[in-house]
């Protein structure tokens, strides 16, 4: 009996050390997985496409933009992104850096993605220096793809 109990504990310990599988979307809409969320975000931001950005958000998402605007819901976020793309970020682009994806259950994950922001301009039109941004999001699988319940974009020092 003692040997079986030890064996059982070793098996349980081995299971605990295994990395959690990353959530993946299966089906007919392109097979987008949670890792590709960050690429889709960077592409939409870099092309100043507010409509594509808000498709990555749930209807009731809470968003804090890189300029500090707090938005509740897709429409408020779309308006905030559009204003940023007409001003400070009219020619900005994001370059992906380190990312961490932490699955928290079936169809849910916490996402942390670093970006380098280049091409931002000041109010007088002068180029701003590159800076680091951190995207923190709680993403869930919905019928139309991965969407953020919360999406906070923070400037790093």
Automatic annotation (TrEMBL):
Task: Name it.
Answer: DUF4440 domain-containing protein
Q: Which SUPFAM superfamilies match?
A: NTF2-like (SSF54427)
Q: What is the lineage of its organism?
A: Bacteria, Pseudomonadati, Pseudomonadota, Alphaproteobacteria, Rhodobacterales
Q: Record's Pfam families?
A: DUF4440
Q: Domain DUF4440 spans what residues?
A: 39-125
Q: Which organism does this sequence originate in? A: Paragemmobacter aquarius
Q: Which InterPro entries match?
A: DUF4440 (IPR027843), NTF2-like_dom_sf (IPR032710)
């Amino acid at each position: 009996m003692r040997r079986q109990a030890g064996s059982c504990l070793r098996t349980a310990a081995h299971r605990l050390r295994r990395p959690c599988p990353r959530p993946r979307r299966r089906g007919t809409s392109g097979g987008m997985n949670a890792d590709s969320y960050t690429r889709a975000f960077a592409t939409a931001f870099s092309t100043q496409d507010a409509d594509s950005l808000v498709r990555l958000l749930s209807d009731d998402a809470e968003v804090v933009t890189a300029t500090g605007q707090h938005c509740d819901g897709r429409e408020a976020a779309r308006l905030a992104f559009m204003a940023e793309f007409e001003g400070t970020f009219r020619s900005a682009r994001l370059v992906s850096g380190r990312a961490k994806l932490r699955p928290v259950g079936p169809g849910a994950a916490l996402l942390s993605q670093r970006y380098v922001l280049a091409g931002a301009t000041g109010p007088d039109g002068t180029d701003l220096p590159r800076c680091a941004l951190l995207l923190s999001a709680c993403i869930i699988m919905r019928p139309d793809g991965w969407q953020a319940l919360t999406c906070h974009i923070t400037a790093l020092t």
